[in-house]
Amino acid sequence: MKNIKYKIAIFFSALLVFSSCQEDDVDAGSIVAPSNIEISVTYVDNGTESPAPGLGSGEVILSATADNALSYHFVIQGQTKLQQSGSVSNIFTTLGTVTYPVTVIAFGAGGASTSKTIDLEVQALYEPPADLIEMLTSNSSRTFRIDTDKPNYFGLGPVGTTRLGEFFPNGGDPNKDGVGMNDDRYIFNIDGTYTHITNGDVFGREGLINEIGGPGDGTPDGADILNYSYADYSGFWTLTAPGGVETLTLSDSAFIGYYIGGDHSYRIFERSANGFSILSTDGNNEFDWNFILVAD
Fold first, then answer.
1. Which stretches of the chain score pLDDT less than 50?
2. Nearest to 264 by CA among 215, 179, 184, 194
3. Is the peptide bond before 169 cis (omega within 30 degrees of 0)?
């Protein structure tokens, strides 16, 4: 009799545990679609807000809000930008005043989504100089690599720095052979397409590098991730000059050198017929990172 009572007690205990697990699963899998998407547009010229459709820089900041939204996709000119913050900047480069459809997709719990599309009128007046286009593409296609023969070929400084390697390496050797960067190649084509030859792995900032959607491997080394597995990929490039500074912007999560997230825009620090140096602010807004490239 005691054995029967014991078995019944075990049965009801198991039933309670199973019921509890079922309730947890239902809670964890709740699906909530966002609603009430609102999109605001800010036009930016020379770093300050300007009236629609802008004064010619082509730079726009898009901000989205929605009830029950966890993240947002911005679909701009066929390219998708993922932003959990709900805000993204984009520089439109087609000359003249052009109307673009922009779609915001808001994602909620369980992956449910809601979208909204607006027509965005933007004015762009910048036309890159011929010698810059020739340097970057040879008027057809051109391949670059990190110029490891130069001091400060990879370095960092404070946001807004006016020199290369202000914090690191200060003229020393950055010693970045074999970490997934120095063997990469960057191909710029006259039609605006871009290809990054990774040779199987890349180098990036801990935390930020997962934005590119790789397997999440690599070797942690302080704030760096070395030899993160990542295949060759293609994207697009554009040239603008906000505030008079020649700037190279890559689409989506495309990058040069060390992955730092941010807006994927690289300010051209200096250039010659066979190479150029660039600066970009990371996604944490901590540092400006620099790279020196040379035609391969």
1. 1-28
2. 194
3. yes
pTM of the model: 0.76
CATH 3.30.70 fits 130-295, yes or no: no
The pLDDT of residue 26? 39
DSSP the chain: -HHHHHHHHHHHHHHHHHHHHHHHHHHHT-----EEEEEEEEEEETTEEE-TT-SBB-EEEEEEEEET--EEEEEETTEEEEETTSEEEEE--SSEEEEEEEEEEEE-GGG-EEEEEEEEEEEE-----HHHHHHHHTTSEEEEEE-TTSTTSEEEEETT-SSTTTTBTTTS----TTSSSTT-EEEEETTSEEEEE-TTEEEEETTTGGGG---S-SEEETTEEEEEE---EEEEEEEE-GGG--EEEESTT--SSEE--TT-EEEEEEEETTEEEEEEE-TTSSEEEEEEEEE-
- Domain coordinates in residue numbering, the chain: 35-124, 130-295
Dist CA 189 CA 207 (whole Å): 31
| Dist CA 46 CA 258 (whole Å) | 28
The per-residue pLDDT for 78 is: 80
Distance CA 89, CA 40 (A): 12
Q: How confident is the model at residue 172, as a pLDDT?
A: 75
- pLDDT value, residue 10: 38
Give the C-alpha separation, 262 to 285, whole Å: 8
Two domains, one topology: 35-124 and 130-295: no
The predicted structure's pLDDT at residue 19? 40
- The tokens describing 227, both together, are 């030899």
Q: What is the CATH number of domain 35-124?
A: 2.60.40.10
